[in-house]
Amino acid sequence: MPRNAVNDFVVKFANVNGSGSASANQLFAKSILRMGIPIASRNIFPSNIQGLPTWFEVRVSGEGHLGRRGGVDLMVAMNPQTWDRDIAEIDSGGYLLYDSTRPMPASRFRDDVQVIGVPLTQICNTAYTDPRQRQLLKNIMYVGALSALLGIEPAVIEQLLAEQYKGKEKLAKPNRDAFHMGRDWALRNLDCPLGLTLQRADAVGDRIYVEGNAAAALGAVYGGATVCAWYPITPSTSLAEAFERHCKRFRTDPNTGKKRYAIVQAEDELASIGVVIGAAWNGARSFTATSGPGISLMQEFVGLAYFAEIPAVIFDVQRAGPSTGMPTRTQQSDLLAAAYASHGDTKHVVLLPEDPRECFDFGAASFDLADRLQTPVFVLLDLDIGMNDWLCEPFAWDDTRQLDRGKVMSAEELEAGRTFGRYLDVDGDGIPFRTYPGTHAQKGAFFTRGTSRDRFAKYTEVGSAYVDNMQRLLKKFDTAKSLVPHPVERHAAQPTRTGVLYYGSSSAAMKEALSALEADGIHLDAMRIRAFPFHDDIMDFIARHDRVFVVEQNRDAQLRTLIMTEGNIDPAKLIPVLHYDGTPITARYIHAAIADRAAAMKVVPFAGAAAE
């Protein structure tokens, strides 16, 4: 039976990279948003410039699910190279739209899929003579056909085209014409609409549609950052570029045009973090943006910043590794590398945002944390959050909020004779006072070094002094527990002794999977972890449950490993649910993985378990 659904289906576009399909696919996605219907879009693209397969997936969800569901209801198959693979993804009863200019044998189709042929190449070749124009406008034509098949309001598409090509009528007109050619052909030759239909709604509200990298960059601006040093690497490059755009708007004197910021594209990642640490030592709020390979190269300087106690912020937009891995695929595979970066005994603050709104919030907060704790702070995004547009709550900012620079001793305090020891803990929280260079002509100076020293920054290799310093650093890390974002807990509808932990971009799919599991009678308490060091609530959550699933997107169960190490937890109590093929995790995957194991474990509501 053909699939029938209103405002609840998945459309996937299979294209060739470099064919100009990206703008057409985004046009399709945004038109649905303009009709008041929530969507989640994801671009799955290759790491070369052009020629390899690329996919764009749009999840239409009137209920507001923003994670990947799994499966496809309508495949727009524009790439012959991936035809068989793309056809296989379509759910039974789904639809296939393809370019029918050249006939395809019946053996290339599936009996349980509804086939829709549109002779896109033929229409384009009739209407246009320029080869590039034919290629580009074919994409707009299939958007036109989809508007008729799914019920997208043509006025919405026309408005989006007008906005996109404002002041460029020579480009706007052929795109409008191509859109109507595709739409008109579908209305004349096909049964419109399909069983999959769109109906105008009011479910988007005031939410915004933005990518995580841009949100994090804006958070850096609001957090007071004035220095960015970086080296280009996928998928973090757009974060640094967005910071530059934001700075041109917010950090340029409107009267003089003077720039009140510095952006340095260094020769490599090691140089980048070196510039960041130097700027921070001088009192500037500074950061770098990178990915896993960059974190590997930064290890030496990260250790220096930890030991010398210099604030720095590192945005790590994770991708599939190790080594070059899959540069344009997503993973959560840098957690352990960030938490324990550098050699020796180190522990770093790590923030774990779930969407662009938290990228903005945590991006801003990371600079306060770095200054207050005088240490590097990692903000771990991933490609799914960083390079995809997400529907999220609008950013909010309190204009009365003051930057927290932490313990900085002033010239007046030094002049008054206050005791200054650069590594002296005066109040038991593990955090010493610091001074900015040049604060006082004679007092408050110290050497910054990566070697052992005493509380007054005097070089020493006396073991007891080294141990004293290392123990103080642990105390400071413990202080960080109360400063980082606390975990978010969701209680099951019925009492249960089984829980689930997750973090970051897994959150959207996790929320949907929890609802599906609950419908199957599998009730789980859930907790989303938002930072390391782990708040005590996380260990309490684990203690309250007999078994806890740990959902993450890497092979080696890095979150589970970190929890076992830091909390001395029995490994048998933590059950890994791992997804690491480079695509964002889906609700169906989580549901199936947990449901299968829950059945074997005989997971039942707590009351039922007690009755047994």
TrEMBL record:
It comes from the Bacteria. Residues 219-382 form the Pyruvate flavodoxin/ferredoxin oxidoreductase pyrimidine binding domain. CDD domains: TPP_PYR_PFOR_IOR-alpha_like. Pfam families: POR, POR_N. Keywords: Oxidoreductase. InterPro entries: 2-oxoacid/accept_OxRdtase_asu, Pyruvate:ferred/Flavod_OxRd, Pyrv/ketoisovalerate_OxRed_cat, Pyrv_Fd/Flavodoxin_OxRdtase_N, Pyrv_flavodox_OxRed_cen, THDP-binding, Transketo_C/PFOR_II. Residues 18-183 form the Pyruvate/ketoisovalerate oxidoreductase catalytic domain. This is Ferredoxin oxidoreductase.
